[in-house]
Design a protein that fits this description.
By secondary structure, this protein is an all-alpha fold. The chain contains 16 helices and two strands. It folds into two domains: 193 residues, Growth Hormone, Chain: A (Up-down Bundle); 187 residues, Growth Hormone, Chain: A (Up-down Bundle).
């Protein structure tokens, strides 16, 4: 649909995907930390073993992501997400009915594999396949809606768990994926998926790469490295927020940090949507990368200051929120719409494999060199991510040209 020559984002598809992303992240990701203690008691495991099983499942799910990306390009993201909803429902039910530890871990691996088929990477690819030339704006709008997943599903999970066992909570979540997400994904696959794939691949509609062929491979490697390092820092801090705050003398602030982090993520996406129209995606990626080590530096230098912890929470949330946008939009801006699903699968795989080691790595460092030095190491890793995006800028400088797709926030 066009108005005055300007193509509009597919509003109905974005709204529908927003709902499935909230349910997908809420049921397959955010609910786990709330249910984990009860899972551990039921399986006679320690909490460390339960989260170790989650890390292993994330790692295996990450290894399967490149195959998922190729499927998205071949069969269409809508069909893959429809199948993913069915697999997610079956995996949640299998986890609920698992008779022992081995069956539980196998079901957990199935959950994390299914999540790759229904969460951001697949949803971004679907938006690219529907209307590639406005996909950047569509991705920004989608992340704004889906940013409320934790805000909505942490209290829902807590409320359900007060009345039900963790197994029954997972069965309720399986029903949600089956009754809500699967029909929506099937509708998107039927009404837009095939058309979208043809349009994304047609010469008239597809987004051409903004990089010459000679530098695409090094630029892609740098981009993936930057995203992976950001994901490592993000995953390490979010899992260990409470012990980090306690060790810095800010134990009670962990709750406040948690309440500020989510809204800050959404705020960053809203600011980008309204004011980010003039920013190339590579600049936005650089800004998001800078915010993470900057937040850690504030926390290390000001602890145990309460205002310092609050600044950390807001700045870290802003960086994390922007990062989730550019992981969808930067590959499109640099490398075009053709083969987008395959590239997203490669990016997701590297990110998940690296970030799955983060909780253990930070815990080991905190026990070995202390919290302040561990956070300093994390900040240095974040700074290397900044360097990777600066290196891409340096690669592109001799061949700089305007981005082909309109920027988020443009009317």
């Amino acid at each position: 649909m066009t108005t005055n020559g300007t193509e509009r984002p597919p509003v109905a598809a974005i709204a529908a995907l927003g709902l499935t992303q909230i349910i997908g992240y809420g049921t397959l990701y955010y609910s786990f930390s709330i249910l984990a203690p009860d899972m551990a008691r039921g399986l006679d495991w320690s909490s460390e073993w339960i989260f170790g099983a989650l890390s292993a499942a994330l790692l295996i799910g990450g290894l399967a992501a490149p195959l998922m990306g190729r499927w998205i390009d071949r069969f269409g993201a809508g069909r893959i997400m429809t199948a993913g909803s069915a697999i997610a429902a079956a995996a949640l039910a299998a986890c609920a009915f698992a008779p022992g530890k081995i069956a539980f871990v196998a079901a957990l691996i199935a959950i994390e594999t299914a999540s790759n088929l229904v969460q951001y990477a697949a949803a971004f690819a679907l938006l690219v396949q529907i209307r590639p030339r406005v996909a950047q704006r569509s991705i920004t709008y989608l992340t704004l809606i889906a940013g409320f997943a934790s805000t909505i599903f942490w209290p829902i999970t807590t409320g359900l768990h007060a009345q039900l066992s963790w197994q029954n909570v997972y069965l309720v979540f399986a029903a949600l994926n089956l009754a809500v997400c699967l029909p929506i994904h099937a509708w998107l696959a039927r009404s837009t998926g095939d058309i979208g794939r043809r349009e994304a691949g047609s010469a008239a509609r597809r987004i051409e790469p903004s990089l010459p062929a000679s530098i695409r491979t090094p630029a892609f490697i740098l981009m993936v490295a930057g995203f992976a390092l950001e994901s490592f820092v993000n995953a390490a801090l979010l899992i260990h927020m409470v012990p980090v705050m306690s060790a810095l003398g800010l134990g009670a602030m962990a709750v406040m940090v948690g309440t500020l982090f989510g809204p800050s993520q959404v705020l960053s996406r809203f600011i980008n949507m309204v004011f980010g129209g003039g920013l190339p995606q590579l600049v936005l990626a650089l800004i998001s990368a800078v915010l993470l080590p900057a937040a850690l530096a504030v926390l290390v230098l000001t602890a145990p200051s309460v205002p310092g912890a609050l600044v950390f929470a807001v700045v870290f949330g802003l960086g994390s929120g922007l990062s989730s946008i550019v992981q969808g939009t930067l590959p499109l801006a640099l490398f075009g719409s053709e083969g987008y699903g395959r590239r997203q699968g490669q990016v997701l795989s590297t990110r998940l494999v690296v970030s799955s080691t983060a909780p253990f790595a930070l815990a080991f460092m905190m026990g070995t060199i202390g919290v302040s030095w561990s956070l300093t190491v994390a900040a240095l890793l974040g700074s290397i991510a900044v360097a990777t995006f600066l290196a891409i800028m340096r690669l592109t400088r001799p061949v700089a040209r305007p981005e082909i797709i309109p920027n988020a926030g443009e009317a």
